[in-house]
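Lab notebook, bench 4. Still working through the backlog of constructs that have no structural model yet. Next entry is a single chain of 204 residues. Request: give me the structure tokens for it.
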Amino acid sequence: MSQKIAIYCDDGTANVDVLEASVQQALSELQLDDRFVIHKITACDVINDHDSLSSARLFIMPGGRDLPYVKKLAGRGNERIEEFVKQGGRYFGLCAGAYFASSIVEFEKGTPMEVCGPRELKFYHGLAKGCVYPGFKYNDNSGARIVPIWLHQGLADQVGMNQCWTYYNGGCEFIALNDNVDIGEAETLASYARSDDHNSKLVW
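Model written out:
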């Protein structure tokens, strides 16, 4: 019986069809395409349809804009997502989906695109700060780039390499807050290798 991968598709999400195709390609390359089926779900599904999340193994929150996520999933929606994870489901946040799952967002502070404030999910008990690299524009891929990331020892040993390259377009780094608050169970898998020698964390 196929297991479900749920992809959030509602106000604020961007390039969901590309994401779906990428996930399908990854499953095919891993020879897992006969074990998983991909479904798109909305905020209404998350809140009102119990099976939309409970029957999934993985919930993917795509990139885009996180403020519409905040608006549509506030309260009960985020509670359902939290329940899903507590019951063993996996949350995979990409770009805006990663900002959304942190305690505090600080996006392009001091610019016309600024988005700053607390978030409800708090899967990462710290600050999601971006952009890591300059040039991001909404609805425009001119600021997108391929960037190197350094893999930390445990992951590097598993995959047999210390560095790889990844697509980047507006994502965040994860920063612990200096308030003595427990950041929870967070393992750093990799760091952005930036030209200013500042290593920004990618956290699992």
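Notes after review: The chain is about 25% helix and 30% strand. The mean pLDDT is 91. Flag for follow-up if needed.
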